[in-house]
Amino acid sequence: MARRAGMRGRPDEKLDRIWIGLSSGSYLPRRVLRRAIPKDGGVGDEDRGIPTISDRIAQTVVKRYLETAGVEPGFTTMHMGLVPERSGIQALTIRRRCWDYEG
Fold this sequence. Notes:
- It is built from three helices and two strands.
- The chain is flat.
- The chain is α+β, with helices and mostly antiparallel strands.
- A hairpin with a 6-residue loop joins strand 1 and strand 2.
- It has helices at 11-24, 53-68, 88-102; strands at residues 33-38, 45-50.
- The chain has two domains: 9-69, no CATH class; 76-103, no CATH class.
- The protein has a two-stranded antiparallel ribbon.
């Protein structure tokens, strides 16, 4: 098996540690690697956080679990975080409308 950059140690042992941490509730993500990525159009940079391989694996496990558990059908149209084609800006716009209506 070819070794990849960033994967130190035996992959099966690493996966076991991730799984044990997730299933026991003790998994703690590591600090992300901050990198400046050039913006489209070449004007300025944008800071991005690059998660570790272990964190990406943990994110994928949780995402697949939530998808197979059927969590998404329980969301209403007001939920923004996990609904495709929704954004934080839309959430703020809807919340502002609610404040105007309530007040």
